[in-house]
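The aim of this short unit is practical: by the end, you should be able to scan a pair of folded records and say something sensible about each. We start with the first protein, listed as its amino acid sequence and then its structure tokens.
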Amino acid sequence: MPPDLLKGDAMSARMRTKDFIADTFEEMLKTQSFNSITVQGIIQTCGISRTTFYRHFQDKFELMNWIYKARIEDILKHNPDFFTWKKVIYETLQFIQEKNSYFKNTFSYKNQNALGDFLFECTRDYWVHHLQREANVNELPGEIVASIKFYSAGVIYTLGAWITGGMKEPYEMIAQRMCDNIPKPIGQYLK
């Protein structure tokens, strides 16, 4: 049953509805493949109107990405200091392991709008933003940007292999590997 949209202010009602749709989508992913889930199926399972779904999400790909992005934003909000970057990596992998059925199912989709591409963009943007802040510049040198892209691609490849391989290693081990393999041009900004 959809959340009661008449209680509370409009913003909290909107977030409750988004969360409800996301929770329903995650439940569906436990028994269905990402490819087989449709917006119509999400709407029917939620018991909401098509208009309500599209008021919150453009499509199932935006919904898929929102689930990850909302959690990462929460992690970053609680770790605003860049010097907690290792903690951010650990908490992100812990979240992925906790939501293993969601990530196994969504990461296996490899076509346009794939989660791996979105995760690459999030990782790249995180490092660019924080290194610009650390260096107190609006634009990073090309060498740094190239290192960020290279590192981000490696992180996402490693993450994908871990997820699709059944997450057999503890997330702490994967996180430590990611921390240990920061390229030198990026590492110069870390303490």
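Turning to the second protein, read its sequence before its tokens, just as you did above.
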Amino acid sequence: MPPQQRKIVFLHIPRTGGVALESYLYCLRPDDPYWFFSFFGLDSPQNANRVVIESMTRGDKTHLAVRSNVHFQLATVVAGHVSRNHRP
């Protein structure tokens, strides 16, 4: 299944209050497990989607695993973490 084309992406820069905002976004729709996807596992009690996006490269194993995750595919909001050292 291809990922939903329209997503809101929240990139959390460290030390900017992003955890509070990410927690707020997560709590907006607790009845809908597919509304929110976090790279830190907030939509999964087992933290199954915990990945470091800085280590992902398009087409590598981690990238393909995230893209095939049903929570990612159906999510409207995607939240992740980028450090100041991240290089595109």
